[in-house]
Description:
Layout: H1 10-33, H2 36-59, H3 62-66, H4 68-93, H5 100-121, H6 124-130
Keywords: Membrane, Transmembrane, Transmembrane helix
Transmembrane segments: 12-31, 37-59, 71-92, 98-121
Amino acid sequence: MPEVRIGPSPERLSAMLGLLVVILATLPRYVDQGLDTRLSLIGMAFVVVSIIAVVHWRMLAPAARARLLPLLRRLGLAVIVGMAVMAAWHAFFSPTWVRWQVLLAQGTTTGLLLHVLGMWWNPVSDRSDSE
Length: 131
């Protein structure tokens, strides 16, 4: 049975960068509500994921680094769509409007989920390799 090695990929790095965006978007919510324990835990998670992302970036081949820019554009678009989806959701289904901190955290989380599902459904790597 052949050995399977999984190396660094721009898709994984874009998901990690999206996770860092979600962590940053969650910070105002925790600061506003005074959740110091959660704030310290999310701060530690941010440091760990940042270190892993830097190591992952350094391990990427130059060709893979070139594929990262379209993925980051897709991530940005997914976050904008996620914010719009959550704003519409709260506008139609919430009895009162939510605070901006909650909308920011939920919108970026939805955007990251859309980004990862989009990479699974229509990977950028497959399109660039076939061209």
